[in-house]
Amino acid sequence: MGKILVTGGTGFIGSHACVSLINAGYSVVVVDNLCNSKVEALARIQLITGKQVRFYQADLRDEESIRQIFIDNKIDAVMHFAGLKAVGESVEKPLQYYENNIGGTVSLLRVMAKQKCHTIIFSSSATVYGCQNPVPYQEEMPVSATNPYGYTKVMIEQILRDVCKSDPRFSAVALRYFNPIGAHESGLLGENPNGIPNNLVPYIAQVASGKLDHVNIYGNDYNTPDGTGVRDYIHVMDLADGHTAALAYGMEHSGFTAVNLGTGTGSSVLEVIRAYEKACGRTIPIEITKRRAGDIAASYADAAKAKELLGWQAVSGLEKMCADSWRFTVQNPNGME
Ligand code: NAD
Ligand code: WQD
To answer: Please, which of 36, 44, 169, 194 could form a disulfide with 188 given CB 3.0 to 4.6 Å?
Structure first.
């Protein structure tokens, strides 16, 4: 079927994408510098799929190492997940974010061009819709950002557009993820945040398991049905399958395309907490606190383009997302060691 290089393939989304790719018949090569993940993810991928993944521990900015991977393996296409992703940290350490995310992508693209590999599927984010656009977000809307992390996504999308314009053999699909949550249903693969989680569902998981004592709800005075923030939560395996669909599309088409990967439905913070309570059979204590700086009231996708272009749509609902997150949490009390 083809050999796919997955950058950031030991990370949360990349590891699930490896499972989806292997299930679809691709062979997978992973490169990751392990700055935010553990090599154990590869053993878990093997347990789930029965297939071994070739792994290179390297930094994308180390062009010579990346070039060697292309020389050792005949890579047909790249799925590019590697990057730093903490919004708050990006405000404190902007240069680290620009250097890692943009520098890493530029060296990857340079090697790809030299090695005549012209297909890339990129992890973009709904954050590129900024704070001015109305929901549901559509791909043609103007992009912008409110923090350095978001700007790296806006800039990388632009770099991909320009590379495709300069060389008609290039094909780049920028997938704009909404809020990926959940875990593989085996309970073997999931999200492994360092320290106290910033994101809602990993935080709830730690409250449910007794590591933290309550969830702070960041504001209940938004202009939303129950006053709490609304987001488009998507099961990480649905998201992973969306990548496999995008790869098939990217291999058949050239040029730059941006596609939303969301469910098209928003859920409030309170709805997520209720769904999680149901999944774990425990009460999740809450406290209403003030709004978090930079948050918006609502973010959800118009999911029509993904269906039309990729023939893909999300299938799992919030209950399954929470049940799978909880199974992973119970089975891996100390994360993926
Ligand atoms: P993650 O941190 O779990 O995975 C990213 C992986 O990239 C990690 O394993 C890390 O070690 C690796 N990495 C980082 N910089 C590297 C470099 N220079 N060279 C080699 N490896 C490097 O994050 P994730 O949640 O799986 O996110 C994957 C991608 O999706 C990221 O680009 C992120 O910005 C994007 N994204 C994530 C979300 C989300 O909510 N998780 C939402 C939208 C977009
Ligand atoms: C979801 C909702 C919070 C934590 C972030 C990035 C975004 C993307 C995904 C990469 C919001 C509320 C949260 C808590 C809460 N990443 N909340 N208490 O902010 O939509 O998106 O991750 O591209 O760029 O900004 O996700 O999970 O942090 O928050 O009430 O302890 O939960 O206010 O309404 P967010 P989140």
So the answer is: 44
Residue 245's region, left for phi above 0, alpha for psi from -120 to 50, else beta, is alpha
Residues lining ligand 2, Cβ inside 6 A: 85, 87, 125, 127, 179, 198-200, 203, 215-218, 229, 231, 269, 292, 295
Contact predicate 329/279, CB 8 Å: no
180 lines ligand 1 (CB under 6 A): yes
Residues whose CB is less than 8 angstroms from the CB of residue 218 and which lie 6 or more positions away in sequence, other chains included: 229, 269, 289, 290, 291, 292, 295
Q: What amino acid positions are annotated as catalytic residues?
A: 149
pLDDT tens digits, 275-322: 999 999 999 999 999 999 999 999 999 999 999 999 999 999 999 999
Fold of the 3-181+233-262+303-314 domain: Rossmann fold (3.40.50)
Q: How confident is the model at residue 337 (pLDDT cuts 50, 70, 90)?
A: confident
Identify the three-state secondary structure at position 168.
Answer: coil
Q: Domains of the chain: which residue ranges?
A: 3-181+233-262+303-314
Segments in 188-268 forming alpha helices (H): 200-208, 236-252
Strands (E), the chain: 3-7, 27-32, 54-57, 77-80, 119-125, 171-177, 179-181, 215-218, 230-231, 233-235, 255-261, 267-268, 286-289, 298-299
Q: How far is the CA of 88 from the centre of ligand 2 (A)?
A: 11
pLDDT for res 5: 99
Residue 193 in this model has a pLDDT that exceeds 90: no
Residues contacting residue 154 through CB under 8 Å, at least 6 positions apart: 128, 143, 144, 145
> Cα 261 from chain centroid?
10
Tokens of 321: 């997302």
| Cα separation, 102 vs 158, whole angstroms | 11
